[in-house]
Amino acid sequence: MKIKPTQVFIDARTRFDPSSKYIVPDDAGGYYVRCGWAARLPGDDEGPFLTVTDPALGTGIAAPPKEEVVLSVDDVVHVSTVPEV
Length: 85
Description:
- By secondary structure, the chain is mainly β.
- The chain has one helix at residues 26-35; strands spanning 2-5, 9-11, 14-16, 22-23, 38-40, 50-51, 69-73, 76-80.
């Protein structure tokens, strides 16, 4: 599905920006349109488009980080690391 974000939003590892147009899987695009985050573009819109194929898109499930994640709140630090597979 061809979409144009109506606001900045992040899904999985992808940041969607209103200054760009995207091609995303139909189920993810439908989710973004229903949430009001994007508008569906006509099929004959020539773009240019950025194609996004992350399988976590539109699932509401964040993709796991590829590296260490550090969260610091009120001087308390929590570090999460990605386990080796």
